[in-house]
Amino acid sequence: MIFVTGGAGFIGANFVLDWLAAAGESVLNLDKLTYAGNLENLATLDGDDRHTFVQGDLGDATLVAELLTRHQPRAVLNFAAESHVDRSIHGPEDFIQTNVVGTFRLLEAVRAYWGGLQGSAKENFRFLHVSTDEVYGSLTKDEPAFTEAHSYEPNSPYSASKAASDHLVRAWHHTYGLPVLTTNCSNNYGPYHFPEKLIPLIIVNALAGKSLPVYGDGMQVRDWLYVKDHCSAIRRVLEAGRVGEVYNVGGWNEKPNIDIVHTVCTLLDELRPRDDGQAYSRQITYVTDRPGHDRRYAIDARKLEQELGWKPAETFETGIRKTVRWYLDNPKWVANVQSGAYRAWVQKQYT
Ligand code: NAD
Ligand code: DAU
């Protein structure tokens, strides 16, 4: 089996669902169930004995050691993290605790487990660390996209904590020989995306008749990848990636935020027109910019394409249409994630 951390979050849950559909091999899923973790994301697996869920912290060394010994996974994939940049600006502590200290403790537990393996089990074992393009910092308009050789220049507490975790993973390979793989991916979107992030926030606010907050001038550029393409990239890197290597993952879909917001509005105009017949774009409101806001991210994914033959299956046009449809088809999921804690966050961030 494989051992996944953070498998009740947005990307982790999509990965677990995809993995069981594509590979069929059992998954042990350790997740703390913070505000971002949601077992409803995995509801379709109820009764599927290939999926074992354990609520717990990746930094709980005793628990992780016990799970490793009991389940003998052939790989550990680390998705668990505090992931929202705005929250890291309001309160960086949890980001240091989970992303840095938690990754360190996980690495130590995995090193002890791997050290006790023998023969091919030891040789074939992998630790795959899921990271972000934000560790590379911000690009100007004309600079080339991030390659794996780009220097680390993290600018937010979130990206600094992810950069620290990447460095730990690298060092555990270099010093102890732990067989690691690291992926650095661009912005994901798709089903089960928590509506504190741009795309799902715009969809749910639009449908609720609320304002659509665009930070600053809305001309910050992100490079968007449909979440299931990220999952297929991780599967491919786990299968064939060279130990100790880093692979950038991206969809060659650079877009300014304001274009993303207009695209979502136009799709909603078509699929769920407003009662008054007006365009959803009327709800767009420019708000105060994010402090230290990175201007542009762009991923050069050629290494992954050329070495491992991976390519995204979705274009932005097909992926965003599927995403908007998913939110329209799943109002119960949306209503349930907008709990008291969610409302408190929105109040804090947007007033
Ligand atoms: P998310 O916030 O939706 O989910 C994170 C999950 O981790 C949640 O289920 C949460 O309960 C769990 N978690 C948090 N702290 C934990 C802890 N201490 N112990 C165990 N579980 C804990 O995040 P996401 O968007 O799914 O991101 C997953 C990973 O992918 C993260 O490492 C993130 O840095 C990385 N990433 C995200 C994106 C993106 O666009 N969302 C892009 C590139 C990389
Ligand atoms: O690049 C990968 C990263 O993408 C991941 O590592 C992070 O975990 C993930 O959260 C995401 O970070 P971003 O900060 O790019 O995503 P977010 O959805 O928060 O914001 C996307 C852009 O939209 C960003 O430029 C800020 C802007 N924005 C965001 C919100 C929530 C707005 O203009 N208005 C908003 O209300």
Fold and architecture overview:
There is one protein chain. It is built from 13 helices and twelve strands. The protein is of the alpha/beta class. It has a domain at 2-189 and 227-252 and 293-313: Rossmann fold, CATH 3.40.50. The model has no long low-confidence stretch (mean pLDDT 97). Residues 5-6, 8-12, 31-34, 36-37, 57-59, 79-83, 98, 102, 130, 132, 162, 185, 187-188, 194 line the site of nicotinamide-adenine-dinucleotide (NAD).
Labels describing this entry:
Rossmann fold; 351 residues; seven-stranded parallel beta sheet; binds 2'deoxy-thymidine-5'-diphospho-alpha-D-glucose; three-stranded mixed beta sheet; binds nicotinamide-adenine-dinucleotide; globular; single chain; alpha/beta
What is the element layout, followed by pairings?
Elements: E1 2-5, H1 10-22, E2 27-31, E3 51-55, H2 61-71, E4 75-78, H3 85-90, H4 93-115, H5 119-124, E5 126-132, H6 157-176, E6 180-185, E7 187-189, H7 198-207, E8 212-215, E9 221-226, H8 227-240, E10 246-249, E11 254-256, H9 257-271, E12 284-287, H10 302-308, H11 316-329, H12 331-337, H13 340-350
Parallel strand pairs: 1-2, 1-4, 2-3, 4-5, 5-6, 6-10, 7-9, 8-12
Antiparallel strand pairs: 9-11
Helix pairs in contact: 1-8, 2-4, 4-6, 7-9, 9-11
The structure holds nicotinamide-adenine-dinucleotide and 2'deoxy-thymidine-5'-diphospho-alpha-D-glucose (DAU).
The site of nicotinamide-adenine-dinucleotide has 30 residues, from helix 1, helix 4, strand 5 and strand 7.
